[in-house]
Amino acid sequence: MQYINCFKLPKKKTIIDVIRKMIFLSIGAFIAGFAIEGFLVPNQMIDGGVVGVSMILSHLSKYNLGLLIVILNIPFVCLALTKMGKRFVLQTFYAISMLGIATNFFHHYEVTHDHLLATVFGGMILGLGVGIVLKNEGSLDGTEIMSLVLSKKFGLSVGEIIMAFNIFIYGASGLVFGWEQAMYSILTYFVAYRVIDVVIDGLDTSKSIRIISDCAEEIGKVLIEDLEIGVTYLYGKGGYSGVDKTMIYCVVSRLEMSKLKEAVRKIDPMAFLSVVDVHEVYGTRMKKRIDKI
Known about the structure:
YitT family protein, disordered N terminus, 10% strand, transmembrane, N-reg_PII/ATP_PRibTrfase_C, elongated, UPF0750_membrane, four-stranded antiparallel β-sheet, alpha+beta
């Protein structure tokens, strides 16, 4: 008997997917390179991680920044080969190479010397570029790779190692560029960090809803028939009362949230609702509902 693997992508689609990723990795790297050369370098601010180390060394030695970024990241990219797979390594090395080219392309392209503008807009643009690269399964910095390895050896979290590494880097930048510039650099890092979250998670967050009510069947019927919201019934037992309970689970858009709460209150004002943000939703049912709104 011959079996068909339903999850295997056609070769043509795989090639198109790779090309698409390469394009977005290039775009993200060039956006990040523009932020570094147009906003950070002219104002003696740095990014975190290996890129930040490269910026300090480039300032002290006058070596090419793009070349230093690529060279200093090579050991971490090699380290990722045994930990994260060939595909991630190739995409990361490609993105880092594009960043090196971008910093040379935008060299001496100074947008502003206003520190506040450089902090806000430099951080936003940098976060946009890094977020695009991360969303397409690449990386512009080897710090995260190093942190993953060290976290397993020393029992620390990845976040703790990255924070410790960046404290050292920003401390060094304070000695080289001055403490005021180091503080601006830290602010830039936090702005970029928030923008990265927005790029990866998106602005259009959906809501995951759990409803516990004695009128679960009636509520579910209204949600399905009147609001066209797909629901799932989960069965459990009340911890205090010991009574069997039916819980409704569904995912709605932000626009549907108010209609859902109004419908639930009309049927059972005492119903318990738990609402959680959902950053990504897959499935044609959800997409069709959102398109109708």
